[in-house]
Amino acid sequence: MIRRPLVSILLVFGFLAALPLAHAQDWAKPVLKNLQRLDLRDLGYPEVNEVPENSSAITSLLTAGDGKIYGATSGEQAYLVVFDPALNKVRHLGRIAGEPSVHHSLVEDADGFLYLGTGRNPFDPLPLSKGIPGQRIDEALWQDITARFKDYPGGRLYRYHPRQSNDRVKLPDMECELEDLGIPRPHNSIYALSINPARGEIHGITYPDGHFFIYRIDERKFTDLGEVDENRVFHGPERDWRSLPRALVCDEAGRVFTSGTGGLLKYYSPESGKLEATDLKVPGDYYHVHFYKDHAVVECFAKAPSGLIYGGTCDGYLFSLDPDTMKLVNLGKARASRRLRCLAVAADGKVYFMAGERSAARPCQLYCYDSSEGGFDDLGLVIVDRSPYYYWRGYQFDAMTTGADGTIYLGESERKSHLFLLIP
Hints:
The protein is mainly β.
């Protein structure tokens, strides 16, 4: 005789087995319509020459002049990769000189050479000291941050020749052919790069000192223009991070914009050769009753075909900047959590961006801003569903770019990462 508890258990299992399989993943249901327009690519051939786990977080993306998509990673070891739309595959181009990270630091010059800036892995946890009695928290944090970089020689600027090296097949332990151009500032990472191809100038920001530098390609020379931010603030949401801008953008006139002291935009003027201040404050969550200095910083920039510049801040706000009229417009905040991580402008003028923090509770979600009508569309988690062949949910993203054909490319930044493709 079958006992009643056993009968109940069998009935429960039978009921669960009868449920449609789709209900098992209802908690992560895609919001994006037309899922056939979203896909992903592995970073190489699996089990042959794929970029290894723990080294595959994509933290830089670039659309080259020939339409290829280049990316660079952060982790235990940085890698350079390329996606050729004509071949529909990602290939890795080698390890980057024993360096752990290329963060927002990948640009192309007028001759098709790539330049990349290296640094410490930004995802590594910061060892925190106990401090000393009477020491302010910001002083203790700064002491811990500088201690991490004390024995680090400094991030290097490298040059890569695609026409010479792209066709060489690489295994995971093989090096990328790079030309070492030097260290712009000792004991600092290269944190972000931009380029003015017409003038042959590369611009960068270092971390943790926050210095703005220029590399003149013809002269093969670095020039340090000093700090972009006179204050050391820890605005967050990462409480062990000095708040410094993570992006630069060059307008049509050759001015290079970023954020600086007090959260105000500043720019490098090619005419004066100096950093110039503005009274344009980047949007953020400002609490005016505080008795300490604090401000938001720029996380990312993207230019529209019209020349209008879009930016995102560490508090999750989207803004536009018209460089001709020097008018900044706060376009709003798509979600309650902080950080607008990366963005790209589609061919129709819509702005796609990832918003969210680097935490399990507040991962990235995809949003779209319609520049013609205003307002945000919540496109939810980035979920690629090619069941039964593969299924993947992306939670963390730190780089985006728009391809020559209008495809939006998103760089996942997890332990095991992929290049995502979205056809708007």
